[in-house]
Structures are given as C-alpha cells and as structure tokens.
Amino acid sequence: MSALHRQPINGSTRLVGLIGDPVAHSRSPALHNAAFAALGLNYAYVPLPVRATDLAAALAGLSALGFVGANVTVPHKQAAAALVDRLCGDAELLEAVNTIVLADNRLEGHNTDVEGFLQSFRALTTETPRSALVLGAGGAARAVVLGLLRLGCRRLTIANRTLAAAAELAERIHLLEARARVEVLALTELEVTVVRECEVIVNATSLGMLPDSKVPVAVADNLSVDQIVYDVVYASGTTALVRAARALGARAIDGSEMLVG
C-alpha cells in the first residue's frame, strides 16, 4: 500500500511489535501496517529483535514504552509463556505464546498459531490425517501438534535436535490425547522409512529460514505425491521444502498461510 495512504505517526500512535530473533525476514510488519492503513487505524507495527537474554527486560518494558501488544516468534514462544502475567486458552494448554495483549499494565499471553494452522490445513484438505511427522519440539511444534490432534490425527512422530525436548512434547501430547501414539527421534536419527510412511510432513523448526539452513536430506529427498507438506517457515518466495513437494505434485503450504490464518 502506498505511503500516502498510511496514517501519520504521531503522539497518538498505538504501538505493536514483533519480538523474536531474527525478525528481519518477517512479513508481519508489512502485513499489519497495510491492514492498519486500510482500516484507518493510527497504529504502527515494528520489528523488535530481542536476544534470549534480554527477553524478560523487553517484555517488562512494553507497557512503559506505550505498546498495546506484541507478537512473539522464534525462539521465544515458550520462554514468553513463563514471563506473562496470565495465559489464555491454547496458550495455557501449550505453555507457548505468540501474541501478547497489554491490559491494565498486565501481559496476557495468547496462542493463535493453532487456529492459523487448522484453517490453512483445512484449506488444503478435508481428510483426517492418520499419521504425521513433525520436525521440531518448540513453540511452533506445540501448536502444530495440538492442531493435528484436533484434526483427528492419532499417530505422531516427533523428530528434534534434542531428544529431551521431543520427549517432553510427547508427554504433553499424551496429556492432551491419551489415545495418541507418539514416537520420538533425534533429528539426526530420522530414517527414510519414517518419512515415507507418514501422510503429513511438518517442518516446525527454523530450518530453511536462512539460505545456509536446510531440512534434513532424509525428508527433502523422500517426499511423495500423496503426502501433505507443511512448512511453518516462510521466506521471500517459497521455501526449498515446499518447492520440492510441489515439484512432485504434492500438496504443500508454507508458514505465511499460518500467519494470516
């Protein structure tokens, strides 16, 4: 949208931010500022690069700086959940936050990732997924797993860089759905047979966000046309994983759909 249509930034402008590390790649500021302009709202959405060691200070300063809310992205979703004053809805279930609302100088943590995942997944298919491979065990993976459970998926494989985090997520899955069958693997131990057996493949890590980081070859080179591939990462254009899936004729989607879902 042209800058001529934007509200001027002045003393009455309400501030919203995106907290993460990195945030330079994010489309959120452009999307939100365009929406604010279209609605005639005097709001400004700004990227806020915050290191893990500075997260508590950053959240504590939001109110003093006049922010009315913030989004939280990699790698802070779980850490932010422990720092807000109140967790609401899915954020409480998952102990992961992607949205913070300031109310009466208190921080309310919410999670809209689950619904974003569900809406975008349902746009691809109305079928109930029977099995899924999820790469990652962080905040995004938690939202994806809850979404898959709500879709009726009952066989999940969690592959993560650290096995302990995958095991912790598996325990949470069993608390959410006792009938679920969950296998955990270290990402380095992921085998071709596991990839080929799953109906849904989800990359819920930051792999693929930067040019020098890629999902494991065991995944990217062993996709099939019958699978659904969901990459929570989004980049300028499409990610390498989504391109590989679409080249085979598989249904594939990236994280931009989850963002706006």
Architecture blueprint of SSEs:
Blueprint (H helix, E strand, L loop, with lengths): L13 E7 L7 H11 L4 E7 L5 H7 L5 E6 L4 H5 L4 E2 L2 H5 L4 E5 L2 E5 L2 H12 L6 E5 L3 H13 L3 E6 L2 H14 L4 E6 L5 H6 L2 E4 L13 H4 L7 E4 L8 H9 L2 E4 H6 L1
Parallel strand pairs: 1-2, 1-3, 4-6, 7-8, 7-10, 8-9, 10-11, 11-12
Antiparallel strand pairs: 3-5, 5-6
Q: Estimate the strand proportion.
A: 15-25%
- Major β-sheet profile: 6 strands, mixed
Low-confidence stretches: none
Number of domains: 2
CATH architecture of the largest domain: 3-Layer(aba) Sandwich
Mean pLDDT: 93
Number of H/I helices: 11
Distance between the termini: 21 Å
Major beta sheet, strand line-up? 2-1-3-5-6-4
CATH class of the largest domain: Alpha Beta
How would you characterize this protein structure?
A hairpin with a 2-residue loop joins β5 and β6 (106-110). The chain folds into 2 domains: 3-111, Rossmann fold (3-Layer(aba) Sandwich), CATH 3.40.50.10860; 114-260, NAD(P)-binding Rossmann-like Domain (Rossmann fold, 3-Layer(aba) Sandwich), CATH 3.40.50.720. A 6-stranded mixed β-sheet has the order 2-1-3-5-6-4. With 261 residues, the protein is an alpha/beta fold. It starts with 13 loop residues before the first strand and ends with a helix. α5 (113-124) crosses α6. The protein has helices at residues 28-38, 55-61, 77-81, 90-94, 113-124, 139-151, 163-176, 192-197, 217-220, 240-248, 255-260, and strands spanning 14-20, 43-49, 67-72, 86-87, 99-103, 106-110, 131-135, 155-160, 181-186, 200-203, 228-231, 251-254. The chain contains 11 helices and 12 strands.
